[in-house]
Protein: Potassium-transporting ATPase KdpC subunit
Amino acid sequence: MLKQLLPSTLLTLLLTVLLGLGYPLAMTGLAGTLFPNQAHGSLIEKNGAVVGSALIGQGFTKPEYFHPRPSATTDADPNDPTKTVSAPYNAANSGASNAAPTSKSYIESTQALVDQVKAENPDARVPLPVDLITASGSGLDPHISPAAAEYQLPRIARARGISENELRALVTANTEGRVFGILGEAAVNVLKLNLALDRRGSAAR
Structure:
């Protein structure tokens, strides 16, 4: 029996070291060398300080900024660990609401978002894009559609005192096309766009 146990034990140990330790370390080192920005979280800095990640949305709410799409992520209720509370863009608990389109609470919350977004953008001249009132599957999407950015132009132009055409040019300059020209849709990273907006004129977040 020892003859059978020894080789299998040694093989298990060898594979554990190679695949459980060596391979992950090699891939981590390779990724850090070839793709340093992505390997370290695609972090974005402003004046030498990290202000976020290009991969995770943030809750901009002030009128002088482009607003992101909603987030349905949650976190544990500090007063009752058996319950959850809303925690938008919580990267530790990525997920959607999982509510059915026919759910009464979902319909009511979506209508509330519609009313809120329309109230925040009373001068909008294009139809309300669906991504401004619905969360993504992850709840962390950092992008909005160019149409969602266009919808917000009048509000931001008024708050910043700059023309809509200037803002539109900024959106175009920060629009990311389809992956390989065929996958997905054009999108705008909200954090990058707002940082570019700040570089054109100071405003408090």
Observations:
- The chain has a mean pLDDT of 88.
